[in-house]
Amino acid sequence: MMVADELGMRNPEHEDYEPETESEEDDEQVVKLAEPSKNVVYNWDGLFDKLRDIGLPDGLDWSHRLNIDKEEEQEVVDVNDDCARDLSFYMQALEGVRRAFLNFQSKGEPFLRPCDYYGEMVKPDTHMEKVKGRLLTEMRKIQEDAERRKARENKKLAKEVQAQKMKERAKLKKQEIESVKKWMKKRQQSGFDKEGAGGLDLAIDEDGTKPFQRSNKNRPGVSPGDRSGGKATFGGKGKGPDKKRKSREFRDSKFGFGGRKGLKKQNSAETTNDFRGFHK
């Protein structure tokens, strides 16, 4: 009881206890619309006067009115059938266009748009240039992506082809080595040894990497850096002192030993009057 009193709570059995009830209600605000006026003005003559003011004058040419009246009775169409109703509207509009076409042709008035007519566009040229540039950029990106994809595929295919060729070469090399080994084995079995073959020795390794070795023996009198094998110093073809002497003699016999040779064939008075070389 002391705790309840300290917390400010009351016992419902106490005679002074009165329960608290919330009786608050929100008042609804009703917006009332203004009632229409009962004094309605229906001026029939005034309406017809305004109609005559805005209407077209009588006797106006059809090219200024462009109205098509269809007085023919149409078949009854179900209003709930959307397809049939739209088809009826379409046929009615098509018939009106045909009549207008015939009227223009009968009057001889131009009604078709010329080929060089450019109507005003809804969007300006600057905006359309931006749209065109964006489309071209997207198209260029698509082409570049396709080219890169094709290049990757070609590179991958080239690697596969190269690997296949390497396998074929390794297989062919292995087959050749095996054939040489079989030939040597048959040769040994037939009794054709090294002495009978004149000291023929084909050293072939097991892995086939070094079937032959180059001899390190050099020719006598040939320097290690001489690629000609001593032909330049031992009178090889086209070289040596004899060849130089012959070429010098040939040039001397053809061109002489110097001096002025340009006037050797020039005529003089004596050679001009000399007719001994001519026969009568």
UniProtKB/TrEMBL annotation:
Segments of skewed composition (Basic and acidic residues): 146-159, 165-181
GO cellular component assignments: nuclear periphery; nucleolus; preribosome, large subunit precursor
Keywords attached to this entry: Coiled coil, Nucleus, Ribosome biogenesis
Subcellular location: Nucleus, Nucleolus
InterPro entries noted in UniProt: Ebp2 (IPR008610)
GO terms classed as biological process: ribosomal large subunit biogenesis; rRNA processing
Chain intervals for the UniProt region annotation (Disordered): 1-28, 146-280
Principal subcellular localization: nucleus
Biased composition (Acidic residues): 15-28
UniProt xrefs under PANTHER family: RRNA PROCESSING PROTEIN EBNA1-BINDING PROTEIN-RELATED, RRNA-PROCESSING PROTEIN EBP2-RELATED
UniProt similarity note: Belongs to the EBP2 family.
Protein name, per record: Probable rRNA-processing protein EBP2 homolog
Organism from which the protein derives: Nicotiana sylvestris (Wood tobacco)
